[in-house]
Design goal:
With about 130 residues, the protein is an alpha/beta fold. The chain has a domain of about 70 residues. The protein is built from five helices and seven strands; from the N terminus they run βαβαβββαβαβα. The protein has a five-stranded parallel beta sheet, with helices on both faces. A two-stranded antiparallel ribbon has the order 4-5. Helix 4 links the parallel strand 6 and strand 7. It starts with a strand and ends with a helix.
């Protein structure tokens, strides 16, 4: 199985590596990196965090200032990408941001905070 993971916490990434081998993992630490892979490669499942560092600010569509380099930015790209129909697990501990991401991704996405799932989550996806 090919899995894309957006996560900038080294300890969480170590957990993914230890628990999801021998699957093929693409671990991205920035939104731009994840957006690139989601638009150029195919995946069976995607795990998204929201809060990434360092945070950047960007002007939104209506002129508001918003944070860039986060999972919401990636969710917007994912929803229109070649991977738009794959299962997505939003594992952020930021509940409000996760809810915004769910609205963008629709029925393919679920919110399961990191630390509340086990490696068996991959069995539930199939």
């Amino acid at each position: 199985m090919r899995i894309l993971i957006l996560e900038d916490n080294r300890y969480r990434n170590e957990w993914f590596i230890q628990n999801f081998k021998p699957n093929v993992l693409t671990i991205c630490e920035t939104a731009k990196e994840a957006e690139y892979y989601l638009t150029t490669s195919d995946y069976n499942v995607v795990f998204l965090d929201h809060d990434l560092g360092p945070e950047d600010y960007a002007a939104g569509e209506t002129g508001e200032i918003r944070l860039a380099n986060n999972g919401y930015e990636v969710a917007q790209v994912l929803a229109k990408s070649r991977n738009k129909n794959v299962p997505v697990i939003i594992h952020s501990l930021n509940v409000l941001a996760a809810e915004r991401m769910l609205k963008v991704l629709g029925t393919n996405a679920v919110y399961i905070p990191f630390g509340t799932f086990t490696k068996d989550i991959l069995n539930d996806i199939h």
